[in-house]
């Protein structure tokens, strides 16, 4: 496994790999790798000749109340995990390398961002789109891998790839879960013992909602009301949102049909947990 920190070197290596007829799978991250990231790497390893992991804490996606400097970093640990997971290259640039001067062209995401977590993080997805455009041009992957834990990000990337004709296959990978169904997250360690026992109710509410929809319920409000009651009854958490949209468009729908997403966020004492399910009704 090779660690590359310069854009020009990374581009030259990727050009040579493509000339040699190799397919490239790409997993973009901000580092501090966890099991979700490793699952993406393992999937990329299965489906491509070459696997590239990027580690870059992107300053343009942090809002005014989000501390870029406090974001956790541990490159030595990440490097060992990436190697074990089968990465061939780690692209690890610094901020000066990625943003050597003030950008002369601004990227603004206008769709799929004013709902779910995006409505509380104005400008966040502009920063995500900006760095992904740069990374896609640097790595030139055949496939890019993103976790469905952040389904809104996957929807935004889907729009980016299609709108700007990137010759890239977007590969969404299902959320990695604990045995009891709780979506794996670094935030789970902040749950109290009681909250940890309650937390699987979030995924349970999604599964029960799916069962009702698959059995014929088509009224979004009825499903939302059921889920709110279930979570409030089975947890001490405070519901931030439970929402239903078309997917990946993230548009409001009056009747549950086509491909949909049900997504939720619940605040516990020291952790805010998110989860979702997508499927075709």
Automatic annotation (TrEMBL):
Question: Which sites bind (R)-pantoate?
Answer: 61, 153
Identify the residues that bind beta-alanine.
Answer: 61
Q: Which UniProt keywords apply?
A: ATP-binding, Cytoplasm, Ligase, Nucleotide-binding, Pantothenate biosynthesis
Q: Which GO terms describe its molecular function?
A: pantoate-beta-alanine ligase activity
As recorded in UniProt, coiled-coil segments are none
Task: Give the E.C. number(s).
Answer: 6.3.2.1
Q: What domain of life?
A: Bacteria
First-listed, main subcellular location of the protein, grouped into a coarse class? cytoplasm
Q: Where in the cell is it found?
A: Cytoplasm
Q: Which residues form the active site?
A: 37 (proton donor)
Q: What enzyme category does the UniProt record give?
A: ligase
Say if the entry is tagged with keyword Disulfide bond.
no
Comment field (misc): The reaction proceeds by a bi uni uni bi ping pong mechanism.
* Family membership noted in the UniProt record: Belongs to the pantothenate synthetase family.
What is the name of the protein in this document? Pantothenate synthetase
Taxonomic source organism: Bacillus songklensis
Which lineage is the organism of this entry classified under, starting from the top rank?
Answer: Bacteria, Bacillati, Bacillota, Bacilli, Bacillales
């Amino acid at each position: 496994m090779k660690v590359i920190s310069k854009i020009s070197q990374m581009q030259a290596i990727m050009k040579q790999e493509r000339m040699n007829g190799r397919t490239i799978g790409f997993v973009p991250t901000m580092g501090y790798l966890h099991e979700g990231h490793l699952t993406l790497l393992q999937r990329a390893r299965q489906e491509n000749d070459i696997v590239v992991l990027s580690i870059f804490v992107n300053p343009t996606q942090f809002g005014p109340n989000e501390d870029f400097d406090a974001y956790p970093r541990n490159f030595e640990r990440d490097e060992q995990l990436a190697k074990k997971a089968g990465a061939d290259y780690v692209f690890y640039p610094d901020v000066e390398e990625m943003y050597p001067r003030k950008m002369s062209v601004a990227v603004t995401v206008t769709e799929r961002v004013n709902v779910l977590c995006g409505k509380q993080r104005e400008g966040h997805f502009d920063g995500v789109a900006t760095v992904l455009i740069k990374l896609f041009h640097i790595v030139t992957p055949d496939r890019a891998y993103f976790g469905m834990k952040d389904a809104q990000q996957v929807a935004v990337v889907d729009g980016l790839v299609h709108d700007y004709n990137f010759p890239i296959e977007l590969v969404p990978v299902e959320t990695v879960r604990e045995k009891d169904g709780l979506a794996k997250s670094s935030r789970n360690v902040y749950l109290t013992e009681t909250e940890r026992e309650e937390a699987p109710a979030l995924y349970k509410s999604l599964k029960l909602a799916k069962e009702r929809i698959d059995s014929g319920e088509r009224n979004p409000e009825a499903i939302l009301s059921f889920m709110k009651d279930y979570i409030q009854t089975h947890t001490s958490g405070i519901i931030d949102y439970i929402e239903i949209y078309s997917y990946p468009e993230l548009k409001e729908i009056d009747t549950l049909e086509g491909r949909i997403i049900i997504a939720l966020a619940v605040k516990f004492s020291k952790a805010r947990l998110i989860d979702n399910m997508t499927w075709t009704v």
